Amino acid sequence: MVRITVLVDDRAGPGLVPEHGLALWVEAEGRRILFDTGQGGALLENASKLGIDLSQAEDIVLSHGHYDHTGGLATVLSLATRAKVSLHPSAIEAKYGVSQQTARSIGMPEESMAVLRRLPEEQICWVRKPFEIATGIGLTGPIPRTSGFEDVGGAFYLDGAGTLPDGLEDDLAMWIDTPKGLVVMTGCAHAGLVNTLGHVRRISGRDKVRAVIGGFHLGGASGLRLARTAEALRALKPDRIVPGHCTGEAATGYLAGLLGKIVEPGMAGQVHRLE
Fold it and tell me: CA 75, CA 251: separation in Å to the nearest integer?
């Protein structure tokens, strides 16, 4: 049984706090994993209301280094003091977003960086290639960009002057191998959702994608990219697609219109049980 509880998302169910960000509580193979931590403002309250004890986290996976996925790290590690943190080395680099010629820092907050620096070496896993954190639970490592129609989804840079483009090499996804197929979790899918799913299928040796949950970063996607993404998803015949966080309402509606009831817009408070 795989059980995934959405703790943080841009949308939230009754009584929960919405926040631009993502955090998923994953229970699988007897293991408890926190996939991303949101910005940090909603995580504790939502977890408490949903009956999730964050101190029980054995692993914390950071999909990439942006603030809306790493901001709650210090809070979680103050509770789950022995949890292992998995992330790509580039996740700790300075990161900027540029809009209307104005740059702002969107990288990992200093509080999160500080707690990482204090962790013993054996408590950090630098994800440079695919590997399994437990039997049947894997991380992609860097994802090859092969589709030809996907990009990182925005004006992202490594410097405040906007001269060094950030290809977001740190973007990674998590997958779980179940008897009925792969369950894939994405933070923002900056590498491209189609690229991500293709890579997961290659490294896992499984063709069937059972479910995809997380951010797809399609808010500013072209019509061509949306169409090709929908075509690729249709060909995979998943049982469930849960677009949340940065996917965008228009893109979510587009996917739902083409793919039907298998598309369930993500929101904090959802519990996805996959037997």
Answer: 32
Alpha-carbon gap, residue 185 to 4, rounded angstroms: 10
Element (H, E) at 78: helix 73-79
Per-residue model confidence as pLDDT tens digits over 50-99: 999 999 999 999 999 999 999 999 999 999 999 999 999 999 999 999 88
* Residue where the block lists tokens 């890579």: 199
Q: What is the CATH number of the domain that holds 210?
A: 3.60.15.10
Number of compact structural domains in the chain: 1
User: How far apart, in Å, are the Cα atoms of 35 and each of 71, 82, 236, 259, 263?
Assistant: 13, 16, 24, 26, 21
| Strands 124-126 vs 84-87: parallel, antiparallel or unpaired | parallel
Q: What is the pLDDT of residues 119-151, one digit of tens each?
A: 999 999 999 999 999 999 999 999 999 999 999
Residue 79, exposed/middle/buried by CB under 10 A (0-12, 13-18, 19+)? middle
The boundaries of the domain holding residue 104 are: 2-274
* CA atoms of 222 and 248, how far apart (whole Å): 13
Q: Which one, of 33, 89, 94, 91, lies nearest residue 61 by Cα? A: 33
Verdict on whether the full-model pTM lies above 0.85: yes
